[in-house]
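Hypothesis: this fold can be encoded by more than one sequence.
Test: take the structure tokens below, design a sequence, compare later.
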């Protein structure tokens, strides 16, 4: 497996851990029989964790498809790997800024992550112009 493919797995784990951590931390108040109970998410940190989790679910498909497309179309693997690592780092920072209630920085990181995805997606189209 490539580093970029491991980053796909890491991105998946990140959005799962984002919500699992608040559920685990509040295990006495979390009712697994009603996992989507809105009253559990009234606490501000839990609400932000839910938002970060949902955004992770939204961001994941484009990242996974972009990486797999770039690899399938034989874009430079080293560049795919580097951008995938950068995406994962940006997503980790995004989760922390979401949990820390830093909306401006969070939006900047989201935009940066989206730009990285666009770059990965279009690597096959520009691979002829990239240095070997």
């Amino acid at each position: 497996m490539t580093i970029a493919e491991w980053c796909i797995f890491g991105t998946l784990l990140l959005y799962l851990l984002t919500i699992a951590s608040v559920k685990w931390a509040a295990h006495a108040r979390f009712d697994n029989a009603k996992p989507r109970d809105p009253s559990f998410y009234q606490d501000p940190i839990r609400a932000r964790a839910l938002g970060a989790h949902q955004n992770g679910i939204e961001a994941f498909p484009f990242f996974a498809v972009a990486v797999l497309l770039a690899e399938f179309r034989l874009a430079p693997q080293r560049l795919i790997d580097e951008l995938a690592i950068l995406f994962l780092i940006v997503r980790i920072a995004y989760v922390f800024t979401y949990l820390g209630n830093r909306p401006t920085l969070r939006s900047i990181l989201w935009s940066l992550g989206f730009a990285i995805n666009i770059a990965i997606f279009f690597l096959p189209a520009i691979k002829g112009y990239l240095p070997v």
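The CA atoms of residues 9 and 115 lie 20 Å apart. The chain has one domain: 3-24+43-127.
Hypothesis status: open.
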